[in-house]
Design brief:
By secondary structure, the protein is of the alpha/beta class. Helices cover about 25% and strands about 25% of the residues.
């Protein structure tokens, strides 16, 4: 089968189209013929993980050590990127009960990656579900990562209807899903913060207001929020504290030492607080998102598609920071 392979960490030129052995499903796995795979921030990070600056790793330093071992110290252990896919089940293992051959599916392979390929294997009890009937494969491939991550994080903060929520990084995979879930499921009044290029996109997702961070500093507006979600995790409680309501929550999508210390400190003092949470999506999270999709309450937006062999061009487009929606590889 054809796959995009990288045998060393580095820039765009480490990605190569190559013939590799087609995987064979175990008894509890399904073999999926991949039709589309989205290009996520995690793919960019993994491609050049050896050279990733410490400041861009949003976890504790000790986790970075474990991640280096997991990904491979000098060379990548998993040489096929991609973890958010849509396709058709080709064959099923002997113990598979729920999925059947010929069924359209979408899913998320997590750190196992492997979706920049014509075929992949995934356990039936993994993060995989039938594809929403009305969606294209390209649209479906853009959903699982950001939506399940956002759902896991929002469960931690108990959003109430009518609360004011600010999402920093609202045009990315997690941010765009957070905007839609907070608005359409929880009934919050959502403000999105993004770059100039993403303003119309974020507005179309259901944000009542969109702020261009290049032109406006929301911390100086005098507005206050019940919840501030910092997807990039580059802000701080000190910076955003004045923009929180008396019992407001700062939710950074980051597990760095500084954020954890802020969480511990604010849990003792009361009032405004920081909540750090690890998102660990499960199959039921994707099933929830699927039901939400069938009600047409989440809409993935495709910025651009590239054929599999143009994976390097897709990475270049994502790294440029000008995308409005999701970037997808098609097979």
């Amino acid at each position: 089968m054809k796959a995009i392979v990288y045998s060393e960490y580095g820039a765009l030129d480490v990605l190569h189209l190559q013939e590799v052995e087609k995987p064979c499903p175990k008894s509890n796995e399904v073999l999926v013929r991949v039709h589309a795979v989205s290009v996520n921030y995690g793919d960019i990070i993994a491609r050049n993980f050896k050279n990733l600056p410490a400041g861009e790793f949003n976890m504790l330093s000790v986790f970075r050590v474990f991640a280096r071992i997991g990904f491979g110290l000098s060379r990548p252990k998993r040489q096929i990127l991609g973890n958010t896919f849509a396709g058709v089940v080709e064959t099923v293992g002997s113990d598979v009960k729920k999925l059947r051959a010929g069924e359209p599916v979408f899913g998320y392979t997590g750190e196992n990656m492997g979706a920049y390929a014509e075929y992949l294997c995934i356990p039936e009890d993994g993060i995989i579900a039938p594809k929403p009937s009305y969606m294209t494969y390209e649209e479906a491939s853009a959903v699982p990562y950001g939506a399940t991550m956002a759902l896991c994080l929002l469960k931690k903060v108990n959003i109430q209807k009518g609360q004011r929520v600010l999402v920093i990084g609202a045009s990315g995979a997690i941010g765009s899903a957070a905007v839609q879930l907070a608005s359409h499921y929880y009934g919050a009044e959502v403000t999105g913060v993004c770059s100039t290029q993403g303003l119309d996109y974020v507005k179309s997702l259901g944000a009542l207001r969109v702020i261009d961070y290049k032109k406006e500093d929301f911390t100086k507006s005098g507005e206050s929020y019940d919840l501030i979600i910092d997807v990039l995790g580059r802000g701080s409680f000190a910076k955003y504290r004045a923009s929180l309501k008396p019992n407001g929550i700062y939710l950074p999508v980051s597990f760095k030492t500084s954020k954890l210390l802020q969480m511990i400190r604010t849990s003792v003092t009361g009032g405004k607080k920081v909540i750090c949470a690890l998102a660990a999506p499960k199959q039921e999270d994707l099933e929830f998102i699927r039901a939400f999709l069938e009600e047409r309450k989440i809409k993935p937006v495709i910025d651009q598609t590239f054929p599999l062999e143009k994976a390097a061009d897709a990475h270049r487009h994502v790294e440029a920071g000008n995308k409005k929606g999701n970037v997808v590889l098609t097979l």
